[in-house]
Write a structure and sequence with these properties.
Rossmann fold; single chain; alpha/beta; 6% strand; 5-stranded parallel beta sheet; binds zinc ion
């Protein structure tokens, strides 16, 4: 077997397409992280920035029942965000999107959080027949990022609900410290609606009538100019040590651990720990752990030890494959066929960014900038 070359700093290696190492053996992802993190304020500056945004949100929310929207998956990031938002004196409408894959712990966690923080929860349940059809279409398209059908609906719904409630601010749990490092070919832009619809057109079976959509036009015009909604990433302005945060939310909010990043969704667990590594050789733990290394939360040795662990307990895997097949209403043979399909790249399907009007628009913007 070919020995993979690994970054001297993080645990990414040559299984990552187009990874570049400098003369000291440090990869491009580590270097990009160092650059990006410099642009984020820290200490008092960060606190001031956070207070300033909170003040703006309060002003815009005067005489309204809520002043902002937050999404709550029940994972670490969104859970801590809910706490932070309340602490800043904001009045969020909490939105949970049920894509059909919530683990039991996730449901319990969400309930605990909103009860303890005394928040209003709005749960949006995605039409399961459509979600199932779209997820199967992505598997049949044989592309790596099959989490897109779930990921797309979050911004789509948060913006739609913001508009309906005349709210101008969405606060998201995204953060650089635990999410910046992610090999480019391991995932794909989940906002790309043209991509989603193209894959669905080729492999889907039923029409998508209720599936929430977030088009390129929505992103560039509707929510920027017609009904402007600002998105904020609060977690970038607070010290964010994953272990400390976990401990905190366990103690304060009755939160229970899922055992892995994004495992609040049973689909995402299966997808990250089985589908991606087995079919594509992408082990997302390498990205998650590398984030923790570059942000000085764990050492490389600790990450390597973590990587030695099995991705799945074999018995549990068997159980989960059965569960996923049953849920997607396919036989084990059909699933095996999916696993054996020749691998495709996302670029083999249509994209928002190849639309003529978008390309023309970009050219004009570039021209004006010059
Ligand atoms: Zn690196």
């Amino acid at each position: 077997m070919k020995k993979e070359k690994q970054c001297v700093k993080c645990v990414l290696d040559t299984t990552v397409e187009n990874i570049i190492f400098d003369e000291n053996g440090v990869c491009n992802y580590c270097k990009e992280y160092d650059e990006v993190i410099k642009t984020i304020p820290t200490g008092v500056d960060a606190q001031n920035k956070l207070n300033q945004i909170a003040e703006e949100i309060k002003q815009d929310g005067k005489n309204k029942k809520y002043d902002c929207i937050i999404g709550l998956s029940g994972g670490v990031d969104s859970t801590y965000l809910a706490h932070l938002v309340v602490e800043l004196g904001l009045r969020p409408l909490v939105v949970h999107v049920d894509t059909g894959w919530n683990s039991e712990i996730a449901v319990q966690n969400i309930e605990n959080i909103v009860n303890i923080l005394n928040l209003d929860l709005f749960t949006y349940v995605i039409d399961w027949e459509e979600m199932k059809d779209l997820q199967l279409a992505f598997f049949k398209a044989s592309v790596p990022d099959c989490d897109i059908p779930q990921d797309h609906v979050f911004p789509a719904l948060l913006h739609k609900i913001a508009k309906e409630n005349k709210l101008k601010h969405i606060i998201s749990g995204h953060n650089l410290v635990t999410e910046y490092v992610l090999p480019r070919n391991w995932s794909y832009d989940s906002n790309d609606l043209t991509h989603i619809l193209d894959i669905h057109k080729k492999f889907g079976k039923i029409p998508l009538k209720k599936y929430p959509r977030y088009s390129l036009f929505d992103r560039m015009f509707t929510y920027r100019w017609i009904f402007p909604v600002k998105s904020h990433r609060f977690l970038n302005y607070v010290p964010y040590n994953k272990e400390e945060i976990k401990q905190f939310i366990q103690e304060k909010l009755g939160w229970r651990d899922y055992g892995g990043k994004h495992f609040e969704s049973r689909f995402t667990k299966f997808f990250q720990s089985y589908y991606l590594p087995t079919k594509f050789g992408f082990d997302k733990r390498k990205a998650h752990l590398s984030n923790l290394i570059v942000s000085n939360q764990i050492t490389k040795e600790e990450a390597l030890k973590e990587l030695e662990k099995d991705l799945y307990d074999l018995k549990e895997l068997e159980y989960d494959i059965e569960f996923v097949c049953k849920k997607l209403a396919i036989s084990r043979e059909e699933w095996n066929e999916i696993m054996c399909l020749p691998i495709k790249k996302h670029s083999e399907y249509k994209s928002d960014y190849n639309k003529l009007w978008y390309k023309t628009y970009r050219k004009i913007v570039e021209f004006i900038k010059k």
